[in-house]
Amino acid sequence: MSLIDVKGVSKIYRSGEEEVTALNKVDLTIEEGDFVALMGPSGSGKSTLLTILGALNPPSQGNVLIDDIDIYKLPVERRADFRSTYIGFIFQQFQLIPYLTAVENVMLPLAILKHSHGEQLEMAQNVLDKVGLSNKMKRLPNQLSGGEQERVAIARAIVNQPPLVFADEPTGSLDTKTGDEIMRLFQSLNKEGLTIIMVTHNEENLSYAKRTIWVRDGQIEREHLTGAAVSF
Amino acid sequence: MRLDSIAINSLRRRKVKMIFMLLGMVIAMATVVTLFSITTAMNSELADTFDEIGANIMVTPKSDDLSLSYGGVSIPASAKQPAMLTNNDIIKINTIPNKDNIAYAAPKVLGLAEFQGNSLMLVGVDFPYELKLKKWWTYHGDKPGAVDDLLLGSKVAREYDKRAGDSMVIKGKEFKVAAVLDEQGTEEDGLVFANLLTAQDLLNKKNQLSFIEVAAYCTTCPIEQIISDIEKSVPNAKVSALAEAVKTRQQIIDRFTNFSYAVSVVVLLIGSLVVMLTMMSSVSERTSEIGVYRAMGFRRSNIFEIILTEAGIIGLVGGVLGYIIGILLAKTLAPTIAQMAITIPWNPLIGVTVVFVATVVGLLSSAYPAVQAAKLDPAEALRHI
To answer: How far is B343 from B37, CA to CA, in rounded Å?
Structure first.
C-alpha cells in the first residue's frame, strides 16, 4: 500500500479576474520509506505540491490520500491534528522560533501532544543527540551556525516520530560541505524508515534521494530512480 | 513545553515589543489609578469640608406645639411642659450603626432669660462642638469654653454695650463675656450663647435639650440612612435633613465623580487601543511564525491561546505596576492637582480590581488580533518565509 496517493490534483490561484494554474491534474504515488526529490524551476509548482501534500493547502480539485486518509475531507482542526502526528516540516531558512532555545524549539511539536514536560525533554534530547547537537541544546537560534540551525529544524521535524517529513530547500542556505552533511543525515533517517519528500534546486542533492520528480508548468514532467535507490 | 511557556518565552525574549505593550498598559492603568485616587480623595475631602461647614441633620423633640424658632427649626414652647430631648440622646446619636459618618452632634437648650428687664434668648451650647460646627463664626475676644463664659450676638452686645471681658448677671448668676460674635446677618446676632450645663441649670431644664444639630459625613452612605438610624435610636425625636445642603453637596460630588469616570474611561480606551495595535503589529510580524506553528499541527485554538496568554500576562503585570505607579503618582501629584491636603491610601480591594480590569482589558483588546492570528491560512502564512 502506498503512503501517499495523489489523484488528479489541480491548484488554481485567483487574483481578481486573473487565474494562475499552479498545478494541473497531477497524479502521484509515494511509497512508505521513499526519499523523493522534487526538482524544477522557480514557479514550476513544486512548492505548491509540497504544501498540498503537507495538508496545508487544499487543492482546487482532486484528492490527496495519506495512509488511506483523504486529508482534505478532514475538517480544518482535524487536519491540524493529522499534521501533528503524521507530518514533520523542515522549512527554507530553518524557521526556528527565535526566542526559544534549541531544545525548546525541538519540544514545540510536543507542546500540543499529551506528553509530560519530562517526556518532552527526554524526546527532544534524544533527537538532538541523534543530529549531533546535544552540547548546544540551550543556545538560541542566533547563537548557532546555519548547519546547526538546520539540524535543530530536522530534530524538530522528527521529534514526534512522524512517518513523513517534508523539506523545502533544506540546503539552500548552507555551504556545500554542511549541505552534504545534512543530506547524509537525511539519508540516514530515511534508512531508518522515514519517508522524506524534499524540494531542491541543487542537483548534487539528487544522489541522496531514491527518486527524483521533475515538475514543470504545474505538471510532472518526468521522474526516475536516482543513485540512492539504484545502490540499494 | 506548554502553550503558556511559549507565550512566556515570547514575552521574555522579545523584550522591546513586550516593554512597549507593557508601557501602554502601565501608562493607561497608572493614569486611571492616579485620576481615580485623586478624584475619589478629593470627593471625600470635599464632602467632608462641605459637611463641616454646617449641620445637615436636625434632631428635635416630637411635638405639635410650635412657637419659638431658630435656624428655621421650631421649638416647642407651650405653657404645659414641652417634650424635650435629653443629654443621653447625644450618646444615642453617637452610637448609631453609621456612627462613623457622624462628624459632630451639637446639642442646644433654648430658653428666655431676663436681663435688665428685657427678655433674651439664651442658648446653651457645647462650645467646642458648636465652634467646630460654625466654622464661619468670627468673633472678638477669647474662645469661649468655661462654664461661666458667654458668647454674645453682635446685636445683643451693641444693645447692652457689652464687650469681651465685661461681665453680665443673668438670673442672679454672674457671667463673663468671653467674646462677641461679628455681625452674622442672622438670628444669631440676637442670641446669647452659654455653656450647655450652666444654661440648663439657669433655665431649669436640667438634662434637657431643645434640639441637636448634627453634621454627618455622607460621601459613602445616603443621608436617609443616618436619619433612619437616629430615628430608631431616639424614638421621641423628629429627625429631618436640611435638604438644600445635602442636595448641593451631592451635586458637587456627583460632578467630580462623573468627571473622574469620564477621564478614566477615555484613558482606559487609549490604553486598550495601544495594546490592541501593538498586538496586531506583533501578530503581523509573526505571520511566518504562526504559519510554522500551524504546519506543526497547532490548532487555531492553540494559536488563540498563545496570543491571549501573552495579552493576559501583559494585563496582569501592567495592572500590578499600573496600580503601584498610579498610587505613587497620585501621592506625589495630589497636593498640586487638588490644591488641598488629601490622603491617598493603598487600598488592596482597588488594587485587585485594577489588576482584574487590566487583565480583562488586555484580553479584550487582544481578542481581535488573536482571532486574526488563529484564522491565518497556514499556506498563506508560510508564503512569508
So the answer is: 9
Q: Do A97 and B289 touch (CB under 8 A)?
A: yes
Q: Are A96 and A152 in contact (CB under 8 A)?
A: yes
* Model pLDDT for residues B240-295, shown as the tens digit of each residue: 877 566 566 667 767 777 887 888 788 778 878 877 887 788 878 888 888 889 88
Distance from CA of B290 to the nearest CA of A (A): 10
Residue with cell 425625636: B237
Asked if the Cβ–Cβ distance from A84 to B1 is below 8 Å, we say no
Domains of chain A and any CATH numbers? 31-56+75-231 (3.40.50.300)
B14 touches chain A (CB under 8 A): yes
Q: Which of A72, A90, A99, A120 to mutate to test the interface with B (most CBs of B within 10 A)?
A: A99
Question: SS in 3 state form for B297-336?
Answer: CCCHHHHHHHHHHHHHHHHHHHHHHHHHHHHHHHHHHHHH
List all residues 6 or more positions away from B149 whose beta carbon is below 8 Å from its beta carbon: B127, B142, B175, B176, B178, B194, B195
CB contact under 8 A, B2 and A111: yes
pTM reported for the whole predicted model: 0.66
Give pLDDT tens digits for B340-364: 677 888 889 989 999 998 999 889 8
- Report which of B27, B2, B25 is spatially closest to residue B313, judged by C-alpha positions: B25
Given a cut of 80, whether residue A59 has pLDDT beyond it is yes
Backbone φ and ψ for A5, nearest 5 degrees, come out as -130, 110
Residue among A85, A87, A99 minimizing CB distance to B10: A99
> Is B15 near chain A, with CB under 8 Å?
no
Q: What is the mean pLDDT of chain B?
A: 83
Residue A98 to residue B13, Cβ atoms within 8 A:
yes
3-state per-residue secondary structure call for B132-201: HHCCCCCEEECCCCCCCEEEECHHHHHHHCCCCCCEEEECCEEEEEEEEECCCCCHHHHEEEEEHHHHHH
Closest CA to B298 of A50, A58, A72, A77: A77
Cβ-based neighbour number of residue A230 at 10 Å: 10
How close B296 comes to chain A (CA, Å)?
5
Residues 6+ apart with CB under 8 A from B348: none
